[in-house]
Structure formats: C-alpha cells, structure tokens
Design goal:
With 968 residues, the protein is mostly helical. It contains 38 helices and 11 strands. Helix 25 links the parallel strand 10 and strand 11.
C-alpha cells in the first residue's frame, strides 16, 4: 500500500465506526458459515487462513512474500474457492459500508448540525446569506438543466441478479438497525440474511456470454424503477418551491431542472452493434417504461382516492372527466375521483398502444408505433375519431392537463394533503419524463461521418471526391447543401454497409422524434471533432433524415449538434473551432434557433444579457478519458480547464449560451471524483445553470441503486450547479489569476512531457502494458457490447480508455490518475520557496487545484507498488521490465513526496475520513485477489489448458473491481 497512508484511530473514531465493524463481522460470519456448510471444513479453513493472513499483511504482522507464495501454491480449483470467497467478502463489506454512511448522515441530522455541503438545504442557506437578487438569478439560471446521462461503458462487472441479492441483504440489515427485534424476529431476520448470502454464494458472479446491446438498454432502464421515478420529480418540485420561497416571482426552476439522458443504444462510436433497429428499440422501450409507470400510478390512485361526492364536493371540470368513464352512470357515481382516474387510465392505455405498439420488445420492429405525427405530437390523430373521448393523448401536456383537473378539484375542498401526495408526484413525473422518459443521444466518430457524406455526394453528383477537398472547400460545399431541402439519396440508391447503417440510424432517430417528441433524441455528439466541416457534415446527415429543415430564416433542427473535443490538441483548439463554426451563417442560424423561451424573457428583463444579443444555445462535450490517455492526468485536467475558459470567452463574444457536457468516467483517470467538488472546480462562467455529464459503469449503481443514494447524488449535482452559477466559488483573487494560469500552463507542459516520455517514447512500453496487466483478458469479461478498441490495432491511441484505466487499476499501479505530476511539480518548484508557497496557497484557496491534488491522492491511496511489482514479473524481458517499472516506481515516490511538500500532510487521505476508513476496511480483501490474479495469468499465458483458469482470472477481475468500487 502507499507509503503515505496512516491508519491511526482515536477512541471517538473507534466508537463511531464500531457499528460498521459489527456489520462486517456479522456478514462475514454468515458467509463463513455458508462456505463451511456447502464447501466443507477444508475449504473453509483455506479461506479463513487466507483471511487472517491478509489482515496480518495489513497490520505488517505477516510477510507479504510468504503469503503470496502460499497462494501461488494452490491448485486452480482451490484458488477458485479463495477468489470466490474474497469477492463475496468485498460485496458484503460494500453493503456494510453503505449502511454505515446512512447511519452517520442520520446521526448528523439528528444532532441538529448544519446541513452538509452538497445538499439543497446547504445551498439555499448559502444563497440566502449571499443576498442574491431575483434578476441576477433569473438571468444566470435561465433554461437551467442538469442531466445525468447513463452510458453503457463496460466497467460494471456485477450482474443484475447480484444487485437484487445485495438489495435484499441491505433491506434486512436496515431492519436490524431501525427496529427493536424480539428474539424470534431477530432469528428470522438472520435466517433471511443468510438465505440471501447463500443465494449470492451459489449465483455465478460473471456472465457466460457477452452482453448484447438490448441487454444494456434494458439494464439501463432499471434505474428508473429503482430510484429515478421517485427521486427526480421530488427534487424538481423541492427545487421549484425553494426558489419560490427565496426569490418570489423570479420564476426560477418552473420547468424541471433535473432531466434524464442516455447513450445506450445511440452511441455507435466504435460499436458496430448499434443499428437503426437498436435506436428504435431504445426509444420505444424508454416510452414503454414511462407509460407503464404512469399506468401503475393511476391504478394506485384509483385505489386510494375513494372520496365520496357526498363528503367532498368536486369541481365541474372533474365531473366532466368522470362522466367520460366507462362505468359512468352506475353505482360508482358517488366516487367521481375514481371515475375520472378510470377515464384517464383508459386514455393512457390507448396512448400506450399507439406509442409503444404491439411489437414492443422486438428490436427489429422500428415502425411499430404506427404512422408519424408532427414533432411532439405523440400518437396525434390515432386511437379513435376526433370526437372520441378515448382518443390517445397527443402530448404529455394533454395527459397532465387532466391530472391538473383532478388536482384543482382536490384543492378546491382543502384536500391539499391528498393532492400533495401520490398525485403530485405523478404530475411532476409527467413534467420530468414526458412520454419519452429520457433523451437518447446519438454519437458517431467524425471519420465515419466524412465517409458517409463523401458517398452521398458522389451518388448525388455533388462531388466525386469529397475526401480530396481542403477544409475551406468542404465548408463551402456543405453550407450550400444547408441552403435547400433537397435530399441527396433517392429511393433506389445503394450504398456501402457503413453508409446504409448510418442512414438507417438517423432515419430511426427521425421516426422517434416524430413519434415521441423532440426530447426523445435531443443531441448528436461528434467524436474526435477537429474542424468546422465535421460539424456541418453532421448537419447534412440530419437534413437527409428530415431532422433538419431549411426555412426562409435559415436551417432549423430539433437535434443539437455537439462537438466532442477529446485529445489535448483538440481541446487546445476547441475555441478556435467553435468560433469558426459560428462564423458560418447557416450554422449560426441553427444555434440561434435554440434560444429557449426563458431566454427571451431574460432578454426583456435584463438588457445586455446573452439572450438579448441573439442568444441561441451551443452544447460542447469535453472528453476526460482520451485526453488523459493522450497526455496524462495533470496535463489533461489543465487542458480541460483552459478549454472551458476559452469556450466561455467565445460564447460571450457571440452572445450565445454555452452548455458543457462532461464525459467523465468513474475513476480519477477518466475524470471521476466527487461530483460536487468537480463542478465547483469549473472555471468562472462554465456552468451558468446548465450541466450534462455521463454516469458510467459501476458508478451508476454506487449513485443510483436506491432512492436514498440517488437523492444524495442528484442533490449534489444540482446544488453544485446552482452554487457555481450564483456564488463566487473561484477562490482566486483577480490579481492572482494571471500568475495562477501561467503557472498551470508550465506545470501541465512539464507533466505531459514526463507522461509522454513513459507512454509514448519508451521503447517497448506497449508490450510492457499488454504483458504486465490483464488488458488482453478484460475483453473476455462479457461486461459490455462494445469492442475494447475502436480499431483492430495494438496502438494505445486506438485502445478505449476504459480497458486502459481498468488494467492499471487491477494491477494496482493506477497510472492514469497520477503519472507525470510528481516530476512536473518537482521541476516547476525547484529550490524556489516562493513557488512552493504559491502552490500551497492554491491548495488552500483554488477549488480547481485543490480538487486535482485531492483526487490524485485518493487514487494513489489505492495504489500498491509492492503488488504492482508482482505484475511486472509477468514481463519476461528483464531489461524492458526494469526500464518501465523503474520509471513507474520512481515517479510514484516522487509524486508522493511532492504531495506531502505542497499540502503539508504526510497522509494521502487526511481530508477524506470516509475514504480512509473504506480503504482500511477493504485492503485485506484485495490482497489475495491480486496475488492469485498474477499467478493465474502466469499459468494461462504459459499454456495451461485447465478450463477453470480463464474463469478464475475473470473472477479476480470481478472481485477486484468490486473491492476497488471504481476500477474503470
């Protein structure tokens, strides 16, 4: 483990964490009982000996090398028993840790302490203290939007079955805390916990077959029933009420701020499994999920709203709804609310049939929803004649209007308590999710767009060799195409497989927009965007699908064109690219057409605001993963910060609103870290009330697996967005900014040089990486539908960031989260005490720098160069092994030394007690898994044909990912 981790505890610490240790002992004991009963005393003894010795290694009472030798002597069969046991120990320890966090928060609230940062209560207390005026808040939060975008990035190794078993155990463990159980109840509770522990033990932790894209779509939808349906509408309502109380009449957050997004089924960059049929399936399943939820809620409301007309008079509008019910005129006339809800339910069932169609669940049934209606008019004109009261709802607003009638009637008789319960949550859910549920982003690589456009132009006779044109000629040609509505492809056109697939995907997106409304497919992200032509090519493709139309006022498109800047070079010129795009009249017209209604109001209320200047919206996505892989941790973080500053400047010059979309992963090496701190660390002007960010892999479950978790994490996103938009969170004095930015320019350049010296300029580095890590075996883990590389090459550049980061995590080097930083800081400071004092000041006052250093420390706390040295032994070339690993070891030591120097602390986790406790508790579970992974990799690569070997390797990956909690 890291040299800068000190696990000393006070009596107060031990008292506070005793319940956690009790839970770990209880769950671990039950697992031990299950192993003894089902695998026998010998296996139990083997596991128990490994457990005791692993904890001894942590306490430095057992020699690590001798413990490793013991494990490497195990047969593959025995190794599997140990791997399974420690993987399950880690799963159960995670449950205990989550429950302990709940207890600590509850104790915090019960003690009457101030609300914690990251909560809406804390944020609104800060706003009240800052005396923000309504006009300023309205202008800065116009069109406020916070969108977590769920992706299928394959770092979640757990199966859904495992999640469900964990949920049952967590529920039963909560009962032990919250309820006074008598002896018989306690015994039954323990029996049930053991039942689920046994179920976990006998459930396969890894999949036997590769997950499909439709599996991923369905898995992504489970978070809505798990938490989003309950939490998002509630937080939107709380946010609106809080602003109404703080700033009456400002109209802030009248529209839902929290909205849902997804990439699953629309992200086809390097994933050949995404097709037009898959886009159709993803959008249809989303609508089905939303409508099923509403129907279920209506059923529950019908049961509960039994109010009698004799006891509670109703409005005429409510009676009108009730009279349309199928059972109007019978004995239920005395219960008009139930009749009204019956009618609303029947209309929504009709909507379900029209929108979802009879072939829901079939990914090949792209046209199942029936004929297309106008944009946003779901099922318009279908399901009955125009005067048929049971016609399907044309829009979510129609459905909401009927619910509003029920709400108004309840309030007319002072039944607000009833109205504010389930009905209020349903009404807010409809406002939040509509009939589309989430916005499905499309994403494709710019190279594919270029090839598709070239083929279309050649077929239409527009240009025989588009690829040969320079940038100016391309922009001129593309702009000309955006001046007319003429399609390029005719009905009998034939194209290559790639172009045919691209056209089918955009056609499916257009169908989804016509069927489910414009919010169903709101964005098209362009990976590896490097030029204006990359953006205009996307516009032409959207025009070909009918999503972009040319009007007398210029082109209009319901889909935002979102450039994604990923490499450090692309980030450095991102502002130049955007400025050039906005100088193209056709593209600027597209951007200006995106001005939300709220911006028009702000322009009238606040002369000189961006909306008054012309005001559209441009979203830009920033790639954290590839920039890190390209230039290293420190250089990538600063390149992102600088790019944001430059993009904000371009937006202000152009008089448009900028919305940034952060492509963050779970680990620090892919932009991870505490979301609240990360948002506050953004540069001035970069948030402005709007934020989108990806939520990936195992982080999704860690944040959104249940309502309490989801509430806390979504509150953190919203709170940080509001604070960044309305409060001064920069931390630097104006006189410091120029020097701080200049210092970071130099430090980032030094860090990139040091990183590049290892990764890009060390002979044999790729061979070292492929041999000393399990990167080759990760692709066989069956945790995602995408290939591990964009292209079939061995290049680091073409390797996806996820296997890159996950490989370094599993072998405990954690290289993407720190390498190069130590050298950069050491060289920049030199012997200059003034420079050292300067950086110490930044750690104290500058959220960006503090966040970068803190996140680096967190990832280094999980590194272990002793274990990493065992992985290095897998490299047979001794010279290569020494050449690379010696650099890694030296830089690791240097980075630890510089951390201590600039922070003044000799403990990496001095500022994060929760993570320190977590690392302390889970390190012993990592120890045997790492030793055994190295040994099984060695046997497998040596040609051992035991079929259990590969399974054992994959199980170690699963167990390590579980114990690390964020591995990719």
């Amino acid at each position: 483990m890291s040299e800068l981790l000190h696990f000393t505890t006070t009596d107060a610490d031990r008292s506070a964490t005793e319940p956690l240790r009790d839970d770990i002992r209880l769950l671990g004991g039950l697992l031990g009982d299950v192993i003894r009963e089902h695998e026998g005393e010998r296996v139990f003894g083997l596991v128990e000996d490994a457990r005791v010795r692993a904890f001894g290694v942590r306490r430095q009472e057992v020699d690590r090398a001798s413990f490793g030798d013991t494990l490497t002597g195990l047969s593959t069969r025995d190794a599997l028993h140990v791997i399974r046991a420690f993987s399950h120990f880690a799963l159960l320890a995670n449950i205990a840790e989550d429950l302990h966090r709940e207890r600590r928060r509850a104790a915090h609230v019960a003690a009457g302490e101030d609300p914690q940062d990251g909560s809406l209560a804390a944020t609104f207390r800060k706003l009240a203290g800052a005396h923000i005026d309504g006009d300023t808040a309205s202008e800065r939060l116009a069109g406020a939007t916070v969108v977590p975008v769920i992706t299928a990035h394959p770092t979640e190794t757990r199966r859904r079955t495992v999640f469900e078993a964990q949920s049952h155990i967590k529920r039963l463990m909560r009962e032990r805390t919250r309820m006074q159980l008598d002896p018989s109840e306690d015994a039954e509770n323990l029996r049930q916990i053991k039942l689920w522990v046994l179920t976990l033990w006998q459930t396969a932790l890894i999949r036997l077959s590769k997950i499909t894209i439709t599996d991923e779509i369905d898995a992504g939808l489970r978070w809505y029933d798990a938490a989003f349906f309950e939490v998002m509408p509630t937080l939107n309502a709380e946010l609106r009420d809080a602003f109404a109380a703080l700033l009456p009449g400002a109209g802030i957050a009248d529209d839902p701020v929290l909205q849902a997004g997804s990439w699953i089924g629309g992200d086809r960059d390097g994933n050949p499994n995404v097709t037009g049929d898959v886009v159709a399936y993803a959008t249809r399943r989303a609508a089905e999920t939303a409508l099923d939820h509403y129907l279920d809620e209506l059923d529950k409301l019908q049961t509960s709203l039994s109010l009698s007309r004799r006891m509670a008079p109703v409005t005429d509008e409510l009676l009108a709804l009730a009279q349309h019910a199928a059972d109007a005129g019978d004995a239920r006339d005395d219960e008009p609310y139930r009749q009204a809800l019956s009618y609303v339910h029947d209309r929504l069932m009709e909507t379900h049939g029209v929108v979802v169609g009879a072939d829901a669940g079939d990914p090949g049934a792209a046209g199942a929803a029936g004929a297309a209606g106008p944009a946003g008019a779901v099922g318009a004109g279908q399901g009955g004649e125009a005067d048929d009261p049971y016609v399907a709802y044309a829009t979510p607003e129609e459905f909401l209007a009927d619910l509003d009638v029920i709400d108004a009637s309840l309030r007319s008789t002072s039944d607000d308590l009833i109205a504010d319960d389930r009905l209020a949550t349903l009404r807010e859910a409809v406002r939040t999710f509509g009939f589309h549920l989430y916005g499905l982003d499309l994403r494709q690589n710019s190279e594919t767009h270029e090839a598709t456009i070239a083929e279309l132009f050649a077929w239409a006779g527009v240009c025989d060799d588009y690829a040969a044109l320079d940038e100016d000629a391309r922009v001129e040609l593309l702009t000309a195409e955006l001046a007319n509505n003429r399609p390029l492809a005719g009905p009998n056109a034939t194209f290559s497989e790639t172009t045919t697939k691209e056209l089918a995907i955009t056609a499916a997106a257009a169908h989804a927009v016509r069927t489910f409304g414009e919010k169903a497919v709101p964005n098209h992200v362009i990976s590896m965007c490097t030029s204006v032509s990359d953006m205009l090519e996307t516009a032409v493709l959207l025009k070909e699908a009918g999503l972009l139309t040319v009007t007398p006022d210029g082109p209009r498109c319901s889909v935002n064109i979102v450039p994604l800047f990923e490499t450090i070079e692309d980030l450095q010129v991102s502002a130049t690219t955007l400025r050039a795009a906005l100088a193209v009249p056709a593209y600027r017209a597209l951007v200006d057409s995106k001005a939300p209604p709220a911006d028009t109001h702000c322009a009238q209320m606040h002369p000189g605001s961006p909306a008054r200047k012309g005001g559209g919206l441009q979203e830009v996505m920033l790639g954290y993963s590839d920039s890190n892989k390209d230039g290293g941790y420190m250089a990538a973080n600063w390149a992102l910060y600088r790019a944001e500053l430059d993009l904000v400047e371009v937006a202000e010059e152009a008089g448009i609103r900028l919305r940034l979309f952060h492509g963050r992963g779970g680990t620090v090496g892919r932009g991870g870290g505490p979301s609240y701190d990360a948002i506050l660390a953004q540069p001035p002007g970069a948030v402005r009330g709007s934020l989108r960010l990806t939520e990936q892999g195992e982080i999704i479950a860690a944040k959104y697996a249940e309502p309490k978790l989801a509430t806390r994490n979504l509150e953190a996103l919203v709170s940080a967005t509001i604070e960044s938009s309305l409060l001064d969170v920069e931390g630097l004095e104006p006189s410091e900014v120029e020097d701080a930015y200049a210092a970071m320019d130099e430090i980032a350049a030094l860090a990139r040089e040091a990183y590049g010296d290892l990764v890009h300029r060390t002979d044999g580095f790729v061979d070292y990486f492929k041999t000393s890590t399990p990167v080759a075996e990760i692709g066989e883990l069956n945790i995602g539908s995408r290939p591990s590389s964009r292209k079939p090459t061995s290049s680091i550049a073409d390797l996806r960031a996820i296997p890159w980061v996950m490989s370094w995590s599993l072998c405990r080097v954690m290289l993407p989260g720190w390498y190069g930083t130590g050298t950069a800081l050491e060289r920049w400071i030199g012997d200059d005490d003034a420079r050292l004092a300067q950086l110490r000041g930044y750690v104290e006052r500058w959220p960006f720098f503090r966040s970068v250093i803190s996140n680096m420390a967190q990832v280094m706390a999980k590194s272990d160069l002793g274990l990493a040295a065992e992985y290095a032994e897998l490299v047979e070339d001794a010279d290569l092994r020494a050449r690379v690993f010696d650099k890694i070891r030296d830089e690791h030591a240097r980075t630890l030394a510089m951390y201590e120097k600039i922070t003044g602390h000799d403990d990496l986790l001095w500022d994060n007690a929760a993570l320190k406790r977590s690392v302390f508790n889970r390190f012993p579970y990592l120890e045997p898994l790492n030793h055994l992974q190295v040994e099984l990799l060695r046997r497998y690569r040596a040609g051992d044909d035991d079929p259990q070997l590969k399974r054992g390797i994959l199980l170690t990956m699963n167990g390590l990912a579980t114990a690390l909690r964020n591995s990719g």
